[in-house]
Design brief:
60% helix, 226 residues, OB fold (Dihydrolipoamide Acetyltransferase, E2P), 3 domains, 9 helices, alpha+beta
Length: 226
C-alpha cells in the first residue's frame, strides 16, 4: 500500500500541487493520515539519498562551514585591498549576503536541534552575520584608504565631472567623480563619498581640492587642510 501511495503522491506533486493539497486529496481517497505521513517521509528520504548521490559535495555537512570560512578569507585576505576600497559598498553587500546564506546553511546542517529549540535566537544570530561582515569590511577598507593617503597622499586641484545621489529608505547616499592630473597618467579619475552638505555645495564643473594616493589614484578624499 505504501508504494502505491508514494506513487500517487509523487504524481500529484509533479503536477504542481502543494503538499497540503496532496495530503487532503489522499485523505479524500480513503488513506489513513499515518500512512500518508509515512509515505511522505519515505519520499523525502529517497529524494535526499538521490541528492547526496548526485551532489556529494553539496550534501557534505562541513561544506557550508568551509564556504563560510572561505568567504571571510576571500574578502578580508585574498581580495586586493585597492579593489576592495574602490568597490567597498558592493563587496560589503555581496560578502554580507554570502555570510548570511552560509550561516543559515551551517546552522541547519550542523546544529538542527539548536535551530528547532531556539529558532528566533538562531535566526537573529545568523542575520547579524550580514551586518557584522558589512561593518568589519567597511572598517577595513576605510582604514586601508587612510593609511594609503598618509603614506602616499598628494594634494592636487581636481574638477568635479559628475555628482551622484542615491535615494534610500532611511538615508540618501552622495558621491562625486573627480578628474585630476596624476603621476601615472595625464588625467586620473576617482569617486569620493560626500555628505549632504558637501553635495549641496558642489556642482558639475566645480574645482575642489583633494588628496589622492600616488600608488592607487582611485583612492582620494576632499582635502580640507589646504
Amino acid at each position: 500500500m505504501l508504494e502505491e501511495l508514494q506513487t500517487k503522491i509523487k504524481e500529484q506533486r509533479s503536477f504542481g500541487f502543494s503538499m497540503a493539497e496532496v495530503e487532503a486529496s489522499m485523505r479524500e481517497q480513503g488513506y489513513a493520515q499515518v500512512d500518508i505521513e509515512q509515505a511522505i517521509h519515505r519520499i523525502g528520504d529517497q529524494e535526499m539519498a538521490n541528492f547526496k548521490q548526485k551532489h556529494p559535495l553539496l550534501s557534505n555537512k562541513m561544506f557550508p562551514l568551509v564556504m563560510l570560512l572561505f568567504t571571510q578569507a576571500l574578502f578580508f585576505l585574498l581580495l586586493p585591498k585597492s579593489a576592495a576600497e574602490e568597490f567597498s559598498i558592493t563587496f560589503a553587500l555581496i560578502g554580507g549576503v554570502m555570510s548570511l546564506v552560509f550561516s543559515f546553511w551551517t546552522a541547519a546542517i550542523l546544529f538542527p536541534s539548536l535551530l528547532d529549540k531556539f529558532p528566533i535566537a538562531t535566526g537573529i544570530t545568523c542575520i547579524s552575520s550580514l551586518f557584522i561582515f558589512g561593518v568589519a569590511f567597511i572598517g577595513m577598507t576605510t582604514s586601508y584608504a587612510s593609511n594609503e593617503l598618509d603614506r602616499y597622499g598628494k594634494r592636487v586641484r581636481a574638477k568635479v565631472s559628475d555628482l551622484s545621489k542615491i535615494i534610500g529608505k532611511r538615508n540618501d547616499m552622495y558621491s562625486m567623480t573627480v578628474v585630476f592630473p596624476c603621476e601615472h597618467q595625464v588625467n586620473c579619475e576617482a569617486s569620493i563619498d560626500l555628505s549632504e552638505r558637501e553635495y549641496d555645495a558642489l556642482e558639475e564643473g566645480s574645482d575642489v581640492n583633494i588628496i589622492y594616493s600616488t600608488e592607487h589614484p582611485n583612492i582620494a578624499r576632499i582635502d580640507y587642510g589646504r
